[in-house]
Amino acid sequence: MFVPSFYREPDASWMVDLVRGNPLALAVSNGCPEDGPFATHLPVIFDPARYGDLPGELAGATLLGHMNRANPHWPALQTGGILLLTFTGPHSYVSPTAYGTTPAAPTWNFTAVHARGVVEKIDSTEETLDVVKATVRAYEGEFGDGWDMTESLGYFRKILPAVGAFRLTVTRAEGMFKLSQEQPAEVRERVRESFEQSACRYKRETAGLMSRLP
C-alpha cells in the first residue's frame, strides 16, 4: 500500500485500534495465473492466548481467523504461506464546500490497515473450536449483548467440520490515515467540524479520528 509520509499513523496503537474496531478483514493471497488472486471477507481477532489485553503494535502480533472449508481459498492456503489482511476504518467523502476556499478539489478521507503475515493452518478440532469460541467472546464483548454460547456448543461441534481456522503472525503492517493532514490547519478544522455536525455516522467517526491528530 502506498502511504505518503503525512498520512502515516501518528502512533502504532492507531493500527491496533482500527483492526480491533473493524475486524471484518479482506484476506488476499496469490491464486493461479488464469483466475488471479483469492479474496475472502472473514472475521479476525487478536489471539487471546498471547494477549491479556492488546499488543502494543500490529507488527509481530498474532491474529486468528476462520473461513468455510468449501471456499476454494481454503485449500489454496498453505502453512508457511503469505496472506494479506486488509481492514477498512472510518471514511467519508470530503466536499469542497467544507474547505471555505477556492479553487478546491473534492477528495475522500479514509483509514485502512494492511497486515501481511505467515499463515499457520489449524488442523486440530479442539483448537478450531477454541478459535470459534474466542471469536464469539471477542465480538460479543465489543459489539454484542453478552450472549452466552454455552447452550450452543453442541451446535458449534456439529458445524465445526466445515470451519477452517488459521493463525497469522504479522510480519509487516502499514496504516493509511488520510485525514486532511495535507490541508492548512484552519481548513482541516473546517472539514472536521463539518463531519462532526453531520447526521452521517461515518462522517462523525472520521471526525473523531481527526480530533486525535497531533
UniProtKB/TrEMBL annotation:
SUPFAM superfamilies: FMN-binding split barrel
Pfam families, A to Z: FMN_bind_2
Coiled-coil boundaries: none
Protein name as catalogued: FMN-binding negative transcriptional regulator
Organism per entry: Streptomyces erythrogriseus
Taxonomy of the source species: Bacteria, Bacillati, Actinomycetota, Actinomycetes, Kitasatosporales
